[in-house]
Amino acid sequence: MRDVSLNPVRPLVTDLTNLTELAWLDDRAIAPALVTLTSGATRVVVAPEVGGALAAYYESTPEGALHWLRPATQAAFDERDPLRMASFPLFPYCNRIRDARFEFGGGTVDLSGNDLRFAHALHGNAWRHPWQVGACTESSVELHFEHTPDPQQPGDWPFRYRAQQRIELVGGALHVALSAQNLGDRPMPFGMGHHPYYPRTAQTRVYANVQRMWHADADVLPTHLGPHPAVEALRHGMSPDAFALDNNFANWSREATIAWPDEHRQLTMTADTPFDHLVVFAPANDAQLCVEPVTNTTDCFNAVDMQEQVGGCVLEPGEEIAATLTWTPRKG
């Protein structure tokens, strides 16, 4: 059952036909139930049923929607695909786990079989399920997801936990507070993050103060931490076309800026600890660009002897963790 507790002036909507605010979609579009947050001219469209994802974050202007994140397409709604939303939450780990298995608590955690599209477990399980809607105002909404292991489902995450997002507009800035609690009676390995996609143009630049990069193999799994020309490029404003990247970066300052200098605007993302790791996904000859704040590197659960370098943590029974991400736009 979905728990819907909404301000009447901000109802969940399913028929987008008359919503001119969502004009980037076809005027005949039908989407899952959405929540639209407003603050002045800024809008955030949330798709609870599509993995608790953000569908869009934009400013409404006389010329149309000015998007700060890549907006979801109609196909993303049709297929309920979080991977094609504007951003989606990552619980209870970020990125890949090699061969979908790792050792923990004296046994093997086998996550294989839950998604045959991927050879390695990917992004946890919260993005694969609908989220419940909690308290909602004109400018904020709370989303909740609770996972109980299903022994009959191959590759199901074998630990019980609760996750929450509080998504809020403050002025033009977007705040996403993420939290989780171990609801089980045994320790649980854990990590979290968000997976934002940004508009990518020929003039886009990414700024981030990072120290080293995790080099990766053909399966995009980390092999070693070391120098790379992208480290220096990010400090001075890296073009997404400069390298073919799908890599973790270490020791970032928890601040990154995506700039569109030809459009005279930029978006700065800041993160609380323990979002101490940064992923940059900028594939060659592709329109995608992600700059992702995460608490753990790829395959961290299989690198138990490198905890300080790979992040992640273990939540004891009943233990909670919380941290906030903020995106602040600027024009001019």
UniProtKB/TrEMBL annotation:
<dbReference type="Pfam" id="PF01263">
    <property type="entry name" value="Aldose_epim"/>
</dbReference>
<dbReference type="InterPro" id="IPR008183">
    <property type="entry name" value="Aldose_1/G6P_1-epimerase"/>
</dbReference>
<dbReference type="InterPro" id="IPR014718">
    <property type="entry name" value="GH-type_carb-bd"/>
</dbReference>
<dbReference type="GO" id="GO:0016853">
    <property type="term" value="F:isomerase activity"/>
</dbReference>
<dbReference type="InterPro" id="IPR011013">
    <property type="entry name" value="Gal_mutarotase_sf_dom"/>
</dbReference>
<protein>
    <submittedName>
        <fullName>Aldose 1-epimerase</fullName>
    </submittedName>
</protein>
<dbReference type="GO" id="GO:0030246">
    <property type="term" value="F:carbohydrate binding"/>
</dbReference>
<dbReference type="GO" id="GO:0005975">
    <property type="term" value="P:carbohydrate metabolic process"/>
</dbReference>
